[in-house]
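Q: I have 163 residues here and want to know how they pack in 3D. Can you give me a structure?
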Amino acid sequence: MTALNDDDVTLLERTMMGVHDELDHGFFVHQQALLDRDLASAATRLEAYRELIARHMADEEGLILPRYAALGGDLTDAPVRLFLGEHAKMREFLADFAQRIAGLQEHPGDRALLELMDRQATYKNLMLHHDLRERRGLYPFLSARLAVADQGQLVAARHARIG
């Protein structure tokens, strides 16, 4: 597979996948706090991560995936129901993580911390596959089928939802 250079990546891809980069960093700093056993910071950083990913999923579910479906995305190997199912699993994992951290704050212990980190490894694997489906499938699919102006409108609509 040939790597894309920045000139080949559209504004839509750059914007939406840039959020994935922010998410990766946010989860990383959360896990750093766990390693430091700074559970209060880990909880705060997890909540910030949950807020960012919730906004991103809302953008995808409200703006991106409807366009994807309308343009034939459900006829690919990554239909909308797959993305929505992964989003639901992510929400479940994150709620579980928040509960486990609350439990650790009340009753710290190595076993509980390691169980949390094992669950987070599974989550990160899900995120890796989800990211690849979006990076190699969803966003290139849309970029190939949407006019630059339409892509700009999706990015602007996303910014309006944030703002």
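Q: Anything worth noting?
A: The domain at 10-162 is CATH 1.20.120.520 (Four Helix Bundle (Hemerythrin (Met), subunit A)). The longest helix spans residues 110-145.
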